[in-house]
Design brief:
The structure is a homotetramer. Chain A is α+β, with helices and mostly antiparallel strands. In chain A, 51% of the residues lie in helices and 14% in strands. Chain A has 17 helices and 14 strands. In chain A, strand 1 and strand 2 form a beta hairpin. At the B-C interface, strand 7, strand 10, helix 7, strand 11 and helix 10 of B face strand 7, strand 10, helix 7, strand 11 and helix 10 of C.
């Protein structure tokens, strides 16, 4: 069995010394800062769940190389049922963590890498696939956390990379005999600074002349030349200055923590380069990553979040004594409708999945359904938040702190006036948990993570066979006369 | 092979002499009236498709009794893949007909009947299941069209049947040694007057004292005491008085034709009675029928209709020279999104289906997903119609008739002023086809067929495990302290 | 007083002999055909309302020329209160007729004509305004019905008029000493064939070279060379073949009847030409007409329709015994919300109206609010229809005919099984009335009449002062540092 | 002129010593804490705007008592134009502050108090109106900030006050010769701790036996027995620990700050009591306050916020180089549509306002339109946030801090990789400003402030004349036969 224990993971991460900044300050040890600690704690929980026999069907799989039991996070789907299990894992992790599980995006890149490197080797005689397989064996054996990053910083998006600061997109600045040197930065990198390895995919469908940008590779956390700059929003501040984690909305695991990864002349040895210059394949990399990502992170993961939000909202309605009111029942039902609709799209994406490309042995979710999974989630998640905020009431944002409850002078007031059908503390914690959703980063985060709606709309239009539908209509309308 | 040819069907139906009225007049022969003829033609087309080797996977199955090839319309699903095939059939029939295939509702009652009669026999020692199996063998052998009806006329819905005209719901008025005598009426009966047999299910979840209403049975078309009164709306009138079918929006197959079936002391022999008095089972009958019906008729069937509407709308946009405009592309994509979302729910309902009750050998779609399939279709279909009407333009309702085009005096004007990027005739036919959708019965029909939204909302709320979601939220919010 | 009685109107219209075709047949006398008769009856009702002292505030005004009492349909708004009265008239007419009042579109062109001809005379030294005033005096004195038409047939909309059949847009083909000769056709012309006069405005914002298309004029009904081809949809057929008007959904007044007006070398004397060649003014004509039209026909008129639909839906809910159910109350309230929102936009358009151009004495609704009025109505009306259909139930489209109720053989069944908390006849009439809305032309008609959503979106974006909003944000975000 | 300068205000507020807690700590001087300071700064800005001659039409009015120029915040509307000016003030304050102006809720209670005390005096011979007028004269003369609070803490909302902790609603615990003693607490009190006076209205429509709860009064800030507990969410923490206000999303004025006001045996002299025991009038108080509040705070205020959000979103789109993309234009237009719709409802509420009760001299907005104004704003504001987040991109929540930009080690990276078409600093400030909206308290705050949707739905249903609409439909459908 190639699974590592949670202690092994914690020990390993405690030895990492990335160049990591947050809130304008350098953080020496990742465990020192409450924000990076929340990422470690979330990841650690995933290691626990993976070892839990109750969840082994969902959390583990058999390595295609060795037959050994490995984390599903390092597995390549080989059939439709694998895809189904994969989305079950995404949903369950979300239910258990209320935030990113930090092993997800990297994992979602693996099938696309396997498929596209296989294709390149076959069509162009490269040896990317061989390298990739070697790397994957290593990662499986060590049960590594592999983060995945794709979004370049882009600068002025009306311009191509070569028409502006060339570092606006990650690219090769030097090719050497033993490897390449890379510059640029990836934003929105989820959990990169606590991962063992950072996997990088191209974020741009490259055109002729942009060969330096057609680039996929992996580097160890903290490789020479890498700087991580953590996101920093009010929730980051709240956690940084918190006297007691219990005062937070998601006490242990926090919000979803990303960073900007800056590559300042970073060297990558050839055996860790999985594409370099093959512009014709960038779109396939992106599209294969996207469809896997949109089924899981875009869809099933958020279904898990919505499960939590629905549960919390129902509890607050009960705490407030209004859960039987017909308009509350109607709204809770609407939340259920939205949540299940997102689930249905992800399930269909798995069920209707296919081997792609044929012969590669790699299974991909159905293109239309995976994009739809993400597209519907954008709209649904936002509406679910609105409904949660509607039911919870203004107190979700105007509430005092649990510190007020503990203050000897005013604790009695808070206790008296914040109680409802349940004691103040219980109610305040659930409200604070909901605050984390309805007034936090998850609304925008969910809209954007795995790509905003317009991306999925473009794909849906492009892949739909309108000719077929036109023919059906013509036949019935008899325009052939 | 137990399949009948389209000619055998046509010959059989030409011999039927139901007591059928439409538009205030008695119709002696079903082929005499253009409305009933459209139902026959649609049904005949289904017989053709069933015999077409290209579609045999979808349209046929193996009888569980004889192993013979039978129409899937008379088949009981035995696994999840059967459910998938069933929804493929629903979608394809809709694509080919643009209206009801008239073998659907009856078929959707069969699994519920199989399951619930099996359960009653097991639990109450009745012999309903045996009777049902005998009947089903007969229907399969003769390849019969079996209509299905469930909705009572209800009178004042704030009252139970016994608190008003007792005939407001179909019920037994006399029990005899050889059978029962039945009164009442079922509305919205799709294709009943051209079917070989009319299958009747209870439309009411019966309470104690309402034993006479807990009733399921089948009778041959035109049994003594039955009167069919056809629906009659502007589209019925248009067809009735049409000089040429080509002037219609769905020339051959027309709109969905239903009728009111009146039972005025109709005798049903015991061997055709599948429930009589078992009030505890009415809810199960309804729920099992509903979940099958909502996946197919509620979901997949309308996906087929939306395929047609999208195709027609895209064509009109092309005819008008606006199909590349960004707002048109955006709207077509939205239609695709809605259509695929409905499909995803139906597919998930099939994929997540289960044997119900265990041991019965009958497969049912997932309860949540099948209800969702219908619920989302209600909203989506209406929006798809709005978008189709938006894109097609006012001419979809203000257009002249093809008769004007053929008129020697003004034909040249119509030809000149109704042409666009295509000739007037081609455009007018496609507009007329769209008129049939955007200004016809399908909007309301789709909302109501298989039950209005509130029904599905109630089921969704009832079957969702809110306790589980609450527990997840409590764990993360740490209200256990 | 310059008002004519309803009898005078009826007498006048009975003398008209336009070249009118419908359903492929020539109609010699307008009163002969049930469709054209419904237009006459609706118009006649407006004459009655105008004479009714109860409504004189709303229906009449004082002529700016003579001070005499005239129909508000022939009045030019001179202040914000006039605009308010105008929308009150639009709403009330809709409430009383359930269809077009047929004096509306022409009226909505008058202020734009007054303003723009005034402007042209002032800026270009033409005498259009003088001609227009003479014409308006005449129309006021005779209390004429003036129809208004704007939408050309357009052919292939990706092409300008000169790049395709030049008759795709109405244009001058010859300029003579005493007048002009005109070719082309206008579609969607509401009530044109029963009006006294047909007012024609350009439907295209003309560019250089398209001077022949910059054209506004008025011609008497049935002028030499004009042919009217009536719209013909299932509702037209139903009325044509109806044995008794009471069997219709809107018995007397029917659906909104439009026609295609074909101009085949029609001569227009110069005194009836209000623009000819002034391409720079076509956009102003369109925009001024549009803003008046979108407040009234686009907004207030449909508020009146929605009043009717809400009333009918509430009645059906009561007839069915479900009006107190919480989900029904919620849906009725939603309908009220939508209806009042459309009203609010129209009211604001009137309230925020301005003299345009300054000095002209003509009042125009606020541009943003009038466009919004129409834009919101498109979406709201469609949703109101959906809710009406949801509450009414499938019987709104599957119902039998009142002829079945009167049939001696089956009348007893219809009477028994269509009754609810009220007798069958009452219920059937109200359902038939709703059918006219939820399964008729009004959904698409309302979306398109006064221009589809994209038109209003374009105007809204164009006229909004985004710079001002940007500055506000910059000030607070302190990007000036 | 009875206006005070901003310095006079600042001097006055610096002398206040309320018992104020926030984040578990007592704050001695209001200027000491960055959160309370932001409230003072926002209020001070309103004093500045009031003195600015440019805005005197909007910000000032003439006292009905003295004819002197006073702040419109202390004025009672006397006609429809006053209402219009009032909403102009609400909108402009929001545009200038990006948060509450803190003089609004108190002001919105004044007309309801004037009207209802007038009515009570007239009908019950009390002298509440006289007291109220005396108080108002005083407030006008001193140009006081009067906060307004209405929402009780409610405890278990399924129970009336007397069935649970009686302090769940503010009530009288003792009546004395010179005044009353009050217990309970009001939540969501906006700007109460920096106001001069706290005005308290009943939050419950009282029934017989609940006379002690039918209570309206005003007390000076920091009266004996009052404790203020400030809201405390991540944005409060961010401000508390901020090293530089410029790093905040709304640097000076912050988010909307409310508090829980606890009344622990607070004495109120009779001359400051405006109702005590008149249960029949509580509903009128609430309804009159609500309709004024829903037009302004519910409607116009949020229109001002949406102006800011639209401006900021358009800027970010320009910064990112995507503002001309058709889907961005479409979305910006949708935001404009929503914003103007909310404005239209508020404008109509003012325009259709009425004297209420007749003879009182007090003008109230139209009931339906003011409720609609709030109801539409709930839905619109949430959608505007979603669109802003969609356009701004994930960086709105994942962005680093301006402290990172100033850090000597990594500033160059942030500067390089956060720039777009504009420098990093400019872009980061605008993103941070948007973050304040799309990931902050305003989504829920706007939904709940002035009452959640269900409240407005209930009012709309109750006040709509359905009988009238039913009659219209019956007339046309001819159910009278």
């Amino acid at each position: 069995m190639a699974l590592k224990t949670v202690d092994e993971y914690r020990e390993r991460v405690s030895r990492l010394r990335p160049r990591f900044f947050i809130g304008g300050k350098r953080v020496e040890k990742l465990n020192d800062h409450p924000v990076s600690r929340s990422v470690i704690d979330a990841t650690a929980r995933v290691y626990e769940l993976t070892m839990d026999p109750k969840y082994s069907d969902i959390m583990t799989a058999k390595s295609q190389f060795t037959g050994e039991t490995i984390s599903r996070s390092l597995y390549i789907h080989q059939n439709s049922q694998d895809l189904q299990r994969r989305l079950d894992m995404a949903r369950m992790n979300s239910q258990k963590l209320g935030t990113c599980n930090y092993r997800c995006p990297g994992n979602e890149m693996l099938p696309g890498l396997a498929a596209t490197t296989w294709e390149m080797d076959k069509e162009k005689g490269t040896d990317y696939h061989k390298r990739f397989n070697e790397y994957l064996k290593y990662a499986q054996k060590e049960d590594l956390v592999v983060s995945g990053s794709v979004t370049d910083t882009k600068g002025d998006r009306s311009k191509r990379p070569l028409d502006q600061d060339p570092d606006s997109y990650v690219h090769v600045v030097e090719r050497k005999s033993d490897g390449i040197v890379v510059c640029g930065a990836k934003q929105h990198s989820t959990g990169a600074y606590t991962a063992d390895e950072n996997l990088i995919l191209p974020g741009l469908s490259c055109e002729k002349g942009e060969e330096d940008y057609a680039l996929a590779f992996v580097v160890p956390n903290g490789a020479e030349g890498i700087t991580y700059i953590g996101q920093y929003n009010p929730y980051s501040v709240e956690r940084e200055y918190s006297k007691n984690l219990q005062y937070m909305g998601n006490p242990i695991y926090g919000q979803r923590e990303t960073s900007l990864i800056v590559f300042d002349h970073v060297f990558v040895p050839w055996e860790r380069v999985f594409m370099c210059g093959e512009i014709d394949y960038t779109q396939r990399f992106i599209s294969r990553f996207a469809k896997t990502h949109r089924m899981n992170c875009g869809g099933a993961c958020k279904v898990g979040f919505m499960d939590l939000i629905i549960g919390a909202t129902q509890l607050i309605a009960e705490y407030h004594g209004i859960s039987k009111k017909s308009h509350i029942v109607q709204k809770i039902t609407r939340m259920i409708q939205l949540n299940n609709t997102c689930l249905a799209c992800a399930v269909s994406a798995a069920y209707m999945g296919n081997e792609e490309p044929p012969g590669s042995g790699v299974f991909m979710p159905d293109d239309a359904m995976s994009n739809l999974s993400k597209l519907n989630t954008n709209e649904s998640f936002w509406e679910v938040l609105a409904l949660a905020g509607d039911i919870a009431g203004g107190v979700a944002v105007t509430m005092p702190s649990e510190m007020d409850l503990e203050n000897p002078e005013i604790g009695k007031y808070v206790s008296k006036y914040l109680k409802s059908a349940v004691p103040a503390k219980k109610r305040m914690r659930m409200l604070k948990f909901l605050q984390n959703w309805v007034a936090g980063l998850h609304g925008v985060g969910t809209y954007q993570g795995a790509g905003p709606s317009q991306n999925e709309m473009l794909v849906l239009y492009r892949i739909t066979n309108l000719e077929e539908k036109k023919k059906m209509a013509e036949e019935l309308a008899n325009t052939y006369y």
